[in-house]
Model the fold of this input.
Amino acid sequence: MDESPETSLGVESLWRACGLASEAADLPDPLLGRDVGGVTLVRMIAEGGMGRVYEATQAKPARTVAVKVLRPGLMSREVYRRFANEAEILGRLRHPAIAQVYAAGAFTLLDTQVPYFVMEYVPDALPITKFAREKNLPLAARLDLFATVLDAVAHGHAQGVIHRDLKPGNILVDGSGRPKVIDFGVARGLDREDATTLTQLGQVLGTLQSMSPEQVAAAPHAVDARSDVYSLGVVLYELLVDQPPYDLRETSVVEAARIIQERRPASPHTLRREIPRRVSAVVDRCLAKDPARRFASAAECAAALAEARLRPEPPALARRWLPAAAGAAAVTAAVWLLPRAPDPPRPAPAVASPVRSRPLPAARFEFATIDAADPHLVEAVGVRKYREWQSPPIVYWGPIANRSPTCLTYRFDFPAPAAAIHLVARASCWDFFHEPGGIGRGAAAIEVSGDGETWHMIRNGLEPRLWGAGWDIDEPVPAAACGAASLWVRVRLLADDAPNVAYTTAQFGRTIAPATKPVFAVMAPSRDAAAAHDN
Done:
């Protein structure tokens, strides 16, 4: 893209006319109906500091697109470079939750070259926080939505790109409930040696409310992926409690910067008691003033949030009575330390009468959805819950990242040692490498154990790599894993080049409609007490 001098007054006047037209129906926007790079501008849908976004129609292929047009009055060399950098960055990002760039170029407006790029259109879009409020989403659905956003930003970080302007207005949710991260207009590549030249020292970019302390301090060399983590924390905070961490509406820019750099916001769980403390701790860490105390990337934040959601909170009643219980224990210990009178002689034990064997109940653990099995979950490493957008949603476990080791471990306890155990489990995998334009493949393995140490393989798709081989198990477990009062089930999943957003190519516990049997079950037949004792 050729560099251009500052624009003339005529172009800026025309641009102001466009702005007036957006506020008054009787003033036509001079850009509407214009052909820009093979697309026709239909209506303006948003405006920011760098330019405007228009809804447009494209003929080939026939589709609705969004066109971002750079503001002519900002035609400096630096802004040209930043706009070109945005197009370059977005063009190399491929993720379902990032608005895709289709084309970029420049058109002539009063003898001035005006840059633009054509990008994916997000229909019926709402900012993520407004979408959550209007749909009255429950806590779990809000966290699911945010997990998808984390996947998208993590993809950018993995490509060496930080966003630097993550805010609710740049995280849209379409009419089907799918989030899209948009507007990398102030993003920069971590791998570009000259990236810092795109932001001059002292210049503040982005929206103040969502900016990290190092951003408001105008320290571009300190801005990295951890700044995005801070901004994500601001978004998650508002997503959880329906208000931002700071109220900056009546403050000056200087005072707002001081608040962001110095004031610590209240933890989300203190405002909404239904928010788990561990989830609240994730938000607190994102919002740490010192970047070294935050998560290093969106991927690390995603893993911590997934783990926080897995680990159940101690009941509130137990937390409340814990100090009292400790005091009671201390009193009891003190009583036992006092001198005691000799115990009276105990009577001789009575002769035990014979006890008849009583049948033990069968042990049955059956789950119509994989969510229901969470109380038996012992460990979950490198995985998270995925929820597809059907109604009701299809839920399953899958890897957080590609080519990373994962492990799901469940434990089921029986009333007595079980001589025979039946297992129902499902691992769904796909291999799209053999389809035109397809990406992603998955593999899985399922093992069982009677003690949690010695494992017996049921199905092994990991060694060798049996990509796309899914398992639908409905059979007895090996005898070597029986005979104990517990059964451990371990699932390992592996994804390769999968998008990892609202879908992964290696899944465990996926529901299939219509449901004719549980997605996960462990069943031990009843036995009498005498047989249990003999074993």
Remarks:
- The mean pLDDT is 78.
- The chain has twelve helices and 23 strands.
- The chain has three domains: 9-120, 126-187+208-310, 363-534.
